[in-house]
Amino acid sequence: MPPSQRRVLIIGGSFSGLAAGRDLGSHYLVTIIDAKEYFEYTPGVLRAYVKPKHLDALTFTLQPVIETRMGCKYIWGEVKELNGAEKTATYKPIFTSERETIDFDYCIIAAGCNFGPFHKWGESLWFPTIHEDARPEGSWPHLDERYLEGRRRHVLEEFNFLKSLNDKSATCLVVGAGFIGVEWATEIQHFFPRVKLTIIDFLPQPLGPLPASAAKYCEKYMNKVGIKQFYNTKYDAKNPEFWKSIELPDGVDKEYVCIGVKASNYFMPPETLSEKGPGGGGWILMDMSLAVKTREGKPWGYDEKGFPRIYAVGDCNYSCVEEPGKKPDEWPIPPIPKISYPGEEMCTVACKNIENIDKMLYNRRKRHCCGSKITVQNMHWPWGAGMFATSLGPDDACFVAGANWKKNSGLMCVWGQVCAVQKEFIEATKTDECAYGIIGRGIWYFVHHTPVRRVLIIGGSFSGLAAGRDLGSHYLAAPTVRRGDDSGQVTIIDAKEFRESEYFEYTPGILRAYVKPKHLDALTFTLQPVIETRMGCKYIWGEVKELNGAEKTATYKPIFTSERETIDFDYCIIAAGCNFGPFHKWGESLWFPTIHEEARPEGSWPHLDERYLEGRRRHVLEEFNFLKSLHDKSATVLVVGAGFIGVEWATEIRHFFPRVKLTIIDFLPQPLGPLPATAAKYCEKYMNKVGIKQFYNTKYDAKNPEFWKSIDMVSGPDKEYVCIGVKASNYFMPKETLSEKGPGGGGWILMNQNLSVKTRDGKLWGADDKGFPRIYAVGDCNYGCIEEAGKKPDDWPLPPIPKISYPGEEMCIVACTNIEKIDRLLFQSKTVDCCGDPLKVWDMHWPWGAGMFATSLGPDDACFVAGANWQKNSGLMCVWGQVCAVQKEFIEASKTDECAYGFIGRCIWYFVHHTPVRRVLIIGGSFSGLAAGRDLGSHYLVTIIDAKEYFEYTPGVLRAYVKPKHLDALTFTLQPVIETRMGCKFIWGEVKELNAEQKTATYKPIFTTERETIDFDYCIIAAGCNFGPFHKWGESLWFPTIHEDARPEGSWPHLDERYLEGRRRHVLEEFNFLKSLHDKSATCLVVGAGFIGVEWATEIQHFFPRVKLTIIDFLPQPLGPLPATAAKYCEKYMNKVGIKQFYNTKYDAKNPEFWKSIDLPNGPDKEYVCIGVKASNYFMPKETLSEKGPGGGGWILMNQNLSVKTRDGKLWGADEKGFPRIYAVGDCNYGCIEEAGKKPDDWPIPPIPKISYPGEEMCIVACTNIEKTDKLLFQSKTVDCCGDPLKVWDMHWPWGAGMFATSLGPDDACFVAGANWQKNSGLMCVWGQVCAVQKEFIEASKTDECAYGFIGRCIWYFVHHTPVHLFGGGPRWGY
């Protein structure tokens, strides 16, 4: 019988029933039967009662959707009896009084439930009364809610009743403060605010078992809107004391009971229904596969071959599979809430089981196309069952994710108006999906439908959990052969409650736990609930004993049995880690628990089973008490090894047990081994300070008395701690896959560059019949490098990688990517990716994060090294002191949260490993530099270097000099913005040289006298310029003096404006000087009536009105080339406030006639020169700088695509393929592209003014060109997503370069738009106080954008990221 002739009956046409129809409708003869004619989105129906027209958005008629769109059969009728033996259903159609019978091959019961546990038939407002026998005994028998019109009339009746309650300010009691009760109360309050509402619950908080954060949020909201709340209060309507206790002694005008559910499985035989459960029982009993069973546990409705044919899914079933004598945590399926998500998930499992049984029965197939055995799958506890969105009226809501069957579990992760919009989006798209809409199905399909390949991950620490996070949503668990099922999703097997034990432990932080035991709780969590509940994978607590590459099976020993079991897989990732004691047979150390079965009897603490979290905890406490005893007797302790583990251990003991006499030794000449000397000296200095003796270039030789004399321990120490080296623990792997050499004597898993396992003779191990790798080794368990005979490590394909967590997770991403690519090639018949590039397996690289080391020096100090590599003493110590200690605690907390599948941790760390690895250096941290960081920071390893520690909003700095507190609104410290918010790296230093050939920049950090070097793949120069053309270094008030060589020759050498405090003091000094001018009614000359000069003169006049001001310019009007309307407006304003003006006047300070001509025969008391700019590109080679231009030249020459060029027109800094790698943007570049013999109007780029807008526009072009070059070079792409050839874009004259806002004091301004390179072009379109407010808005929002503020970015993002250019010189469809 072909599949299309098998008949499937689905009872129920709501979420689960329609999901089953969508899944099976194209393969089977599907009939859906429902007692009502319509679908209703139940979670949103409360809104309909207070806003009746909303019902239309929640409902649709079933027949056209099921029959026309889905291609199934629809019966409008009520099922009266289901016969499991005969496989028939008796039902009563809506249109007749006689019953009819339908037979089936398979049946899915998705009949839902009712919501009124105190009513015989479960009557409630939330669900229509649709059962024939229930209507006569209901509260609204005159309404037939089986019809959509009947439901609509019921909604209108209730709406009118609520309206009458509102009109008379009636009292109303809502019984039950679960999410239904809370939603109902807040909906009434919002739409009928005069109703006096009270809500009660017998629990101590609203939202029942959901987390306290969500409960408090709802409680606070209800308090705010005046809903009285009483918790720990049992509903007892007949007791007068109850009414008094809730301040309603006379009762209420209306009660709504919003608690509980009630079964409505009236068509099922009693032996298939539970005797207990919510609402008094009556729920359909099911086994793990969701097949219906009887009370005795016997199968019901099975065929003669023992295959299940009838399944119960969604709200109608018992919702859990119990196991006698165990708690819900240990049940095969803990209690599942009766909401739509788990119902649809159950439906997917039931449909898959029907398809699998069908293949076995009718197609006589025993295996899937990928070779795995066809079996009936078991249901799991669905992760989406822990998601709850609770409305608080139409404008507020809260969303909880990660809840499970435990009380107060989960996390409130979205709230407020954003959450209200999210809930409306879910409602609209889910309703569309149920109506078989293409948008809804597109959005929701893969939530329940994932591929079925099985991935086994050996190891549940950093790398293993990272693999689970990456693959868990796409692949299924590897089923155990003994059980013969597909129970779960990606399977993670670990021998402890963390790896081969039951728990995860944040190893880098474990040293602190030994000296502060309660810290262990912050470092550990039990793996099972995280892996199975949050990640949706399968977890096995056991030790792998053997891995078979040929058969693709793993033999393991579960913790709970003495027998071994076998699990098969399609892919395997080995992330088994390593041990840390190279001198011990099993690699025993304090830093990692003893978890291998054979290792425990031969260890130093065999009485403790560290596979259990409690065993680990007791070990920590034992060591703590031992250290305490050493402290009490002032014992001597020797720490062998001054690597970061040794240094951390010594300083932790010193801090918490200060009476212990500590000595640390190392055979190397400094602590921290190969890390840079700056970090080594920092640690050495700290240990000297706290009294730890140190001996370097000293080899450990415990048996030699001379050794002990050499370290001042003639009698030896009371305790030794060996803190050196690692040891492999790959006992389950065959010898031919393990190295013969390496740290700790070898035994590391050999791998190819794509991380697939290989043998000693270089052959691929565990490949399939087509030669694709299926087994990968990542993290600390593998050999850690790819050698090449006859070459130095520098030239190896993969130089040695340190055994720390970051590179392990990076390897995991590469392995997961390779699994996904192979899967597409093998099972999805794909040969190219979405961009048309060939699918291929990726090779591993040396991960940049492998060079980051954070070393604690007790709890209050630390140092952080970045940029280290396989070479000795490489890297840079970039953070230290208490800031670094806090940074290390942040990393520890957020990484542990990420491993525990926490939302915050995953948000913080996701893009650390899911990014390209190209490095971008940005020189300059002002407008353009920060814009480049925002654009590239999420895709590249971005470093921003700036000579000052702060950002300053330059266009507003004039106001700060006359109103110093305004400086705070214009500035922020760069480091926290760039590193914390943007996720880039910040270096506070001055670039001294840029080398295009080597792609390096030499810079001098603020904190040292020595220069350092940083290399890059791409560079954006956004170094800005200075504003004083008559001064050697371009000194002016408008921009701080930040160059090292400029400060001694400047006018304020006593102030270091590289520091924000130095800038602040300069502002205060100038303010006090202006104040002294004001006090003596001094004269002041402003030279230059451009927008800077006009602003400066009017600011002084407003705040210091007694200063006698004169302004001059050699042009015939103020504002230079801007339009006459704006010039006249400013001229008129300055006349009004008494500022003398002289135009067509050349500044000549040495000529007495000049002074007479401007009515200042004796000269002024103070002059301010406000004209021109000056280049400050001191780090660039001369051949890249212009010989002419404003301020005498020195501007960086660039091509039209903004790449740097030389004076003879050659590309500077190109790679071997001729692609540009270095770009100059903003005020530092030449500002135009000339063409000989032509006027500026005809140049490729006419002169661009040196203001912030065009700088940011150039930055966007440069960033786009970097991304396109990157795709061409590193991603082997030649076309974009639309099929157009990838090419480098040219810059245009930006339209926004013609916008100028000129302040005239704080209360007036004028705004010009549309200006260009032609004189007097543009239009003054805003002026007066409105324009002053506009300028303040621009200032505040732009500063916020630069500070990576959400509001500022929202306002300004599309100004430069315009998707369509309707005017200006940019490309029509954006960059």
UniProtKB/TrEMBL annotation:
Q: Which residues form the FAD/NAD(P)-binding domain?
A: 7-321, 454-787, 919-1234
> SUPFAM superfamilies of this UniProt entry?
FAD/NAD(P)-binding domain
Recorded hits in InterPro entries, A to Z, give: FAD/NAD-bd_sf, FAD/NAD-binding_dom
Signal peptide feature range: none
Q: Which UniProt keywords apply?
A: FAD, Flavoprotein, Oxidoreductase
Q: Which family does it belong to?
A: Belongs to the FAD-dependent oxidoreductase family.
What this protein is called in its record is FAD/NAD(P)-binding domain-containing protein
Question: Which organism does this record belong to?
Answer: Durusdinium trenchii
